[in-house]
Amino acid sequence: MANQIPLTKLPEKKTLWAWTLGTFFGAGLLKPGPGTYGSIAALLLWFGSIHLLHPSPLAQAIGTIIAAIAVTLIGIPAATIVARESGRKDPGHVVIDEAAGQLIALIAIPADWRHAALSLLLFRAFDILKPPPIRQLERLPEGTGIMLDDVAAGILALICAQLAHLFF
């Protein structure tokens, strides 16, 4: 993309906590497709925690909701700071928005690879295609716009995954 700053030319002044969280612990610095890496990182953390802790389905859903809300609330200021320091409206290396959206897409999903993969595919499709009203959310200011279009894509992916689970 023409408006992307090469990683070798990232700004010298970085707010460490914002860059660490905004890039979702470096997943956003991977190429190609940093958004997909951010989504996969969130899915792997979710999958690992589910299989480590063995929560009930209700506890799993509640924990995923709490994680998605926390990532979203932390992501708004982190994305704002990284965008400002990068000099770009929606820098590709900010992937905490993909992590939040992916977590939303995983709410109430059975903890197996088949359902997790469907959730990932649906979320990435909605995030990339941005059907209405997702595209309009990008117009919100700074980190709010960066985060909320992915939150909406996660909600659509969750609805479609739940319908697929119900009917198939």
Automatic annotation (TrEMBL):
Pfam families for this protein:
PgpA (PF04608)
Q: Enumerate the UniProt keywords alphabetically.
A: Membrane, Transmembrane, Transmembrane helix
YutG/PgpA domain residues are: 21-165
Which GO terms fall under biological process for this protein?
Answer: lipid metabolic process
Q: Which domain of life is it from?
A: Bacteria
Q: For this protein, what is any one GO molecular function term?
A: phosphatidylglycerophosphatase activity
> Could you list the residue ranges that cross the membrane?
35-54, 61-83
Q: What is this protein called?
A: Phosphatidylglycerophosphatase A
